[in-house]
Design goal:
It is a single chain. The chain is elongated. The chain has ten helices and 17 strands. The protein has helices at residues 9-19, 31-37, 67-72, 91-103, 118-127, 137-145, 149-167, 179-192, 255-273, 281-294, and strands at 24-27, 49-53, 59-63, 81-85, 109-112, 132-135, 197-205, 226-234, 243-249, 306-308, 315-319, 332-335, 338-341, 345-348, 351-356, 359-362, 371-373. α9 (255-273) packs antiparallel against α10. By secondary structure, the chain is an alpha/beta fold. A six-stranded mixed beta sheet has the order 4-3-2-1-5-6. The relative contact order is 0.12. The chain folds into two domains: 9-143, Creatine Amidinohydrolase, Chain A, domain 1 (3-Layer(aba) Sandwich), CATH 3.40.350; 149-373, Creatine Amidinohydrolase (Alpha-Beta Complex), CATH 3.90.230.10. The longest helix has 19 residues, at 149-167.
């Protein structure tokens, strides 16, 4: 297995840029920059920008005060020149000058990161008059969508870390505690269990469970509540976790919930079983949706079945109706059908899986049954 941040990504991305007819990739802090260089920079008003021209040498332009951080990161070991710009210099002019000298001309078309701040994208455009600005996402997506063996193992470690948090849920999720109190404890545990950031904690109790992106509220958990807990973080290696389990607190499972949970579990299994190279995300989504529709709950499954995951919590491929780009071995994504009865309660089961040659390789293995907690 190669390193998590191998040194061949800059030349590979340069090739992809050439094929796409782009003169340069201009990457500011974020997942794309980290993917290409291993440098995990913070986005601030001071410009950090990887200039990757289609011809000539790449250059990493950073604030001079952050230069030491680059050298300490995997980027320090790359064949990559780094220039630290002093506080009073214009870094956009540095980017433009390097680009013109590398290409031997002014660029016609440059690509900026999809998540680059608009402020910086517009200033880059201002420094490169005449150059058309496009998005780098369409150039880098092919690279980032298919994970290397080292990335898959990093995602597996993230999955195991979040599984350990779910396995401890009975320590915090109890009748009489508010979602916010429970969420605070979960967030602390996400950090204790192998992450460097707790990215989101959804504790949807009772009717809040019917709102898929509900986060936390002051609602106090009642006996017999169904509670959707969807949590995730980022590990020191840079890879994300994301896992949902549904709990019943301090009481018997309502019969109706037991009924639709059985449908949901069958849907999650069917969708996972549909995963293999060559199958489309559309078909994986339909595998879950068909089971839920046949069970009579189709109108209550109101979101796509899943999303890709890696250096970002949501990335391509999206497991959604209409996405007919076939899955490839090495793609990683969630399978997370849900059933939501507005104003009453809901349930979701979410695992991250990798599309392997033989089918889905689940990175989350904590039990998928409805977990009844004593309260
Ligand atoms: Zn989730
Ligand atoms: Zn998810």
């Amino acid at each position: 297995m190669g390193p998590l941040y191998p040194d061949d990504r800059l030349p590979t991305a340069r090739e992809a840029a050439r094929r796409a007819g782009v003169d340069a990739l201009l990457m500011t802090p974020g997942a794309d920059l980290r993917y290409l260089t291993g440098y995990n920079a913070h986005a601030t008003e001071r410009l950090t920008c990887l200039v990757l021209p289609a011809e000539g040498d790449p250059l990493l332009v950073v604030p001079v005060l952050e230069r030491a951080m680059v050298d300490a990161s995997p980027a320090g070991a790359l064949d990559l020149d780094v220039v630290g710009w002093p506080e009073t210099d214009d870094p956009y002019a540095v980017v433009a000058a390097h680009l013109r000298s590398a290409l031997g001309r002014s660029p016609d078309r440059v690509a900026v990161g999809n998540r680059t701040w608009a402020e910086q994208a517009l200033r880059l455009r201002g420094a490169l008059p005449g150059a058309e600005l496009t998005l780098a996402g369409s150039v880098l997506r092919e690279l980032r969508m298919v994970k290397s063996p080292a990335e898959i193992e990093a995602l597996r470690r993230a999955g195991q870390a979040i599984d350990r948090v779910h396995a401890r849920m009975g320590e915090w999720l109890r009748v009489g505690r508010s979602e916010r109190e429970v969420g605070r404890d979960i967030a602390a545990a996400i950090l204790t269990e192998g992450h460097v950031s707790a990215d989101f904690t959804i504790v949807g109790s009772g009717p809040n469970g019917a709102s898929p992106h509900h986060e936390l509220s002051d609602r106090v958990v009642q006996a017999g509540d169904v509670v959707v807990v969807d949590i995730g973080g980022t590990t020191a290696e840079g890879y994300c976790s994301d896992n949902t389990r549904t709990y019943v607190c301090g009481g018997r499972t309502p019969a109706e919930v037991a009924d639709y949970y059985a449908v949901l579990l069958a849907a999650q299994r069917a969708s996972t079983a549909a995963v293999r190279p060559g199958v489309t995300p559309h078909e994986v989504d339909a595998a879950a949706r068909d089971v839920i529709t046949a069970g009579g709950y189709g109108e209550f499954f109101i979101h796509r079945t899943g999303h890709g995951i890696g250096l970002e919590g949501h990335e391509e491929p999206y497991i959604v109706a209409g996405n007919t780009e076939p899955l490839q071995a090495g793609m990683a994504f969630s399978i997370e059908p849900g059933i939501y009865l507005p104003g009453r309660h809901g349930a979701r089961i979410e695992d991250i899986v990798v599309c392997a040659a033989t089918g889905a390789d689940p990175l989350n293995v904590v039990g998928r049954d409805l977990v009844v907690l004593p309260g």
